[in-house]
Amino acid sequence: PVIDWLLGGPLGPGRLELTTPDVVLWTYVLVGVLVTALVARSAWTRRPWGAEVALFAVAVAVLAFAATGPIWIEEAGRFEEGRFVVLVDDSRSMSVLEDGTPRSAQVAGALGEIDLGRSEIYTFGDELRVGVEPVYDKAGSDLAGALSAVADRHAGESLAGIVVITDGIDRGGLRRELEVGRPVALELPGPLTLYQVGEPGQIRDLAVADVSTGGFAFLHSPFEVKAEIQGDGFEDSLVPVLLTEDGIVIAREQATLDASGRAEVTFDVTRGTPGRSIYEVSVPLDDDDAVPANNSMAVAVRVVRDKLRILQVCGAPSLDGKFLRLFLKQDPGVDLVSFFILRTHDDVNHEYRDDELSLIRFPYATLFTPHADGGELDTFDLVIFQNFDWASFFQYEGPQLLGNVEAYVRSGKAFVMMGGDRSFDLGDYGETPIRDILPVELGVTGEAVDVGSFQPTLTEQGAAHPVTRLLGSSTDNTAMWDRLPEMDGLNLSRGLAADSALLLSHPTRVSESGEPLPVLAVREVGDGRTMALMGDSSWRWVMTEAANGAGNQAYLRFWKNAIRWLVKDRDGQRVQVDTTKENHRVGDTVRIVAKIRDVGFQPMADTAVTGQLTGPGETQHFEGVTDASGELLVELPALLPGAWAVHIDAGPEGVLGADDTTFAVTDRDPELEDLQPAERFLGQLATATGGRHDLPGSWDTPLEDTEAGRTIDERKDTPLWAAPIIPLIAGICLSLSWWIRRKRGLR
């Protein structure tokens, strides 16, 4: 050790190399000159110089040698024994419970069969990771990718062996290639040993594997919600399956699982209102369920109108009825069912035969009975009573059928009553359930109609309401209403009903309370909407405008606005919120788009919008200002699975309006779709690569290539010029030379 230290390190067989050859010659010339001078001086002075000069010469020679930068170079080849590479599956399927214990608990036993002193351990999921402890949380496992990465990392090297510890649930495509019989092109640098963890048939897991709906459905039309149920450990058994709509159970079915534990359940659903709904399919959760998160799945379905279905009932023919029917029939987006010139129950009581009458029977009982009770009422989006006196046509159960109409409105549908000599109080509606949904108060005493002509007055509420917004500009809109022709006649009322809006009023007549008498009023009743037009001469808005060369735009815009508002058409809302898609995965970015329009439905820029995103146990708030197009885009992360609701308010304290929408988030993990260990796949992979597949509990020492290894070419440079022996020799020689000189009495 002392010698090694003096030389700057241990020296083996090698060669000496001078790193500064340019100074070698001049160094030795200088040394020769210096020694010659010393000898000459000693001869001239005739003094002995032998030992003194020799020691000095040695010191100078050593320093001159160091100046040439000498290094000792050792070059040799060293053989290193082959190593093992161990790949541990770090995906989430390794955390699945088998008899209450995760599969990953078996990894330690598999590692015990391997010489870890000669091994490098990697983990893999969707990519290979070096020196990372497995936590079994990766979203998928790509075995082919991991093996290819090992081959690349050890290119040109022979490995003693490659060991993979996995349950065989591969998401990278290798499993699929082998199962269809395609050749596997894997060139591995060592023999492959596959240690399987997990045993088939040891888990109990009941799951909703998939739910399909088509993404959207048509209003009033049945659509299917199909669910695939997978029950590992529940083969050949009956399983209850629930379907909820926006959190409310709407259907129950029994799934009969086959011998492989699979079943398909189909629910027939009919939606009566447009918009999005969240449908969730769920199965029971057992205490020993391997993956509780997959027992339910939620999807959002957008329900759209194929056509708007409207029922128009006229008690007597009139120009107003004719023009409205023509308008509705010409609209391709409307499915109109209309009844004119109806048989009364007196006609029926006279016992005429059908072939003696030109009029069909009026199917009032079917029309005003809910679908659940065999009728068609709730298949309509809007019902219009136009100069219709119900008592003349309802032979029995009249109040009950009108009560069905009231319930129909409160459930979210729309109703319009128009004036005439058979409407409102003249139609005996004052003691029926219809009274409770109208925007005007019935029960007038004395005269029930004013037959005089008048010019309706646009009220302050009417100037801002979308129903009476015929033009975008407030000034132009008021001017249009002022130039429309007068109306002939008005059904009287006691005034405006509570919680109603007065849009057009009589210019002179007032109600019992002294308020202007309603001509046009609207009301929100429960979840539905109603409108009352207290006259039967709106057809004049067509004729007079056309005569003035202005076309029939006022009439068309009025009824389009009215229908759009009554049925809550989203296109008729000034404030709208939506997401770019209905269904998301956990971690996705949810793009929320808010649109704000003014009363003329023009974009409103620089409008403040506040909102919140509410889901299972989580609420996120957001705010912003609309751009020049009247839109605000907000991007938020989808954090948790389940149904999420979006609510926005536009303007200060929501004065411009509000809107809501929903979307679904799922944490459906492809890694956990098939939970059974892939024993067959691992056997196929071992055969294809010439390796070995060991089942749980029968792991053996891994396959080893005993000739594997590598020769390592090493070069070792020891800088002798920096070795401690150089200054030590020079110092000793110079010290002895000086001591001898002093001994002789010389300086």
Protein model, in words:
- This protein has 16 helices and 39 strands.
- Strands 19-18-20-21-29-28-27-24 form an eight-stranded mixed β-sheet, with helices on both faces. Strands 7-6-3-8-9-38 form a six-stranded mixed β-sheet.
- Strand 33 and strand 34 form a beta hairpin.
- Helix 2 (24-45) runs antiparallel to helix 3 (50-67).
- The mean pLDDT is 84.
Report the radius of gyration as a whole number of Å. 47 Å
Number of strands: 39
Task: Specify the structural class.
Answer: alpha/beta
Largest sheet entry: 8 strands, mixed
Number of helical stretches of at least 4 residues: 16
Kindly estimate the percentage of residues that lie in beta strands according to DSSP.
Answer: 25-35%
* Spatial separation of the terminal alpha carbons: 39 Å
Give the mean pLDDT: 84
Helix % is 10-25%
Q: Give, in spatial order, the strands making up the sheet with the most strands.
A: 19-18-20-21-29-28-27-24
What keyword list fits this structure?
single chain; 747 residues; alpha/beta; 8-stranded mixed β-sheet; 16 helices; 39 strands; 33% strand
Summarize the structure.
22% of the residues lie in helices and 33% in strands.
Secondary structure: elements and pairs:
Blueprint: H1 2-6, E1 15-18, H2 24-45, H3 50-67, E2 70-81, E3 84-89, E4 97-98, E5 101-102, H4 107-111, E6 119-124, E7 128-130, H5 143-153, E8 161-166, H6 174-179, E9 192-196, E10 205-212, E11 216-218, E12 223-232, E13 238-245, E14 248-256, E15 262-269, E16 275-282, E17 296-304, E18 308-314, H7 319-330, E19 334-339, H8 345-349, H9 364-367, E20 382-386, H10 398-410, E21 414-418, E22 440-441, E23 449-454, E24 457-458, H11 460-464, H12 474-483, E25 487-491, E26 495-496, E27 500-510, E28 516-525, E29 528-533, H13 540-547, H14 553-566, E30 575-579, E31 583-585, E32 589-596, E33 608-615, E34 618-625, E35 631-637, E36 642-650, E37 657-666, H15 679-689, E38 692-694, E39 709-719, H16 725-743
Parallel strand pairs: 3-6, 3-8, 8-9, 9-38, 11-17, 18-19, 18-20, 20-21, 21-29, 31-37
Antiparallel strand pairs: 1-2, 2-39, 4-5, 6-7, 10-12, 12-15, 13-14, 13-16, 16-17, 22-26, 23-25, 24-27, 27-28, 28-29, 30-32, 32-35, 33-34, 33-36, 36-37
